[in-house]
């Protein structure tokens, strides 16, 4: 049994099945009757966006990686070398040391440790 053309999306004398392009052409043809050749423009625009998307996906990652590698490398005269040799902020290291004063009771009986804070030891 042969399926009916209406079930396949085939209408009238135009015997092609409906697809997204055909739907777009019908909609654009009804909204803008002077632009009946618009589907070709839509196809060209969609293909150019697809190509641009592929190029950005693969090319953008490599481009960003190149910029990061160039900026992060420690080379004399580079921006990161200047920040490394003369930091914009003064680095301060603070070290806190704690002494457990009841270590035997803590280890043997499981009592709560009593901590004695030593420091802070500051290095500039």
From TrEMBL:
<keyword id="KW-0675">Receptor</keyword>
<dbReference type="GO" id="GO:0005901">
    <property type="term" value="C:caveola"/>
</dbReference>
<keyword id="KW-1003">Cell membrane</keyword>
<keyword id="KW-0812">Transmembrane</keyword>
<keyword id="KW-0472">Membrane</keyword>
<protein>
    <recommendedName>
        <fullName>Scavenger receptor class B member 1</fullName>
    </recommendedName>
</protein>
<comment type="similarity">
    <text>Belongs to the CD36 family.</text>
</comment>
<feature type="transmembrane region" description="Helical">
    <location>
        <begin position="41"/>
        <end position="64"/>
    </location>
</feature>
<comment type="function">
    <text>Plays an olfactory role that is not restricted to pheromone sensitivity.</text>
</comment>
<dbReference type="InterPro" id="IPR002159">
    <property type="entry name" value="CD36_fam"/>
</dbReference>
<dbReference type="Pfam" id="PF01130">
    <property type="entry name" value="CD36"/>
</dbReference>
<dbReference type="GO" id="GO:0005044">
    <property type="term" value="F:scavenger receptor activity"/>
</dbReference>
<keyword id="KW-1015">Disulfide bond</keyword>
<dbReference type="GO" id="GO:0005737">
    <property type="term" value="C:cytoplasm"/>
</dbReference>
<keyword id="KW-1133">Transmembrane helix</keyword>
<keyword id="KW-0325">Glycoprotein</keyword>
